[in-house]
Fold this protein.
Amino acid sequence: MLTGGEVAALVAAVVWAVLATFMCVALVKLIKLINAATAVVSELGDRTPPLLEDVASTVERTNSSLERVEEITANVQATSEDVSTMTALTRSVVTGPLVRVASFTYAVRRVMGQRRALAVVRSRRRKENR
């Protein structure tokens, strides 16, 4: 039979064997994980340069489009200024004579109204004098 010390040593040896087995399994899984992470990083490194080239070409196309938009905006601004100038010129050319015509027609209407009123007054006086 085994003594108490021998049983304890046997139990300790079994515990250490089980613990060593779990540690070996854990280390194997950790190594597989590290290898998978290395593969992912390597694949990412392989895919990154083409993506960066695509991004660079997209930025270049966007910059050229923005330059065209700036040209269009400058042309629209110049056209807007030209239209504003033409509007001011047309206003000054047309409104001056229109104001004069309106003033003239108002004066003519007023004179005609005064002549009618004077004619009515004269006709009443003639009737009264008869």
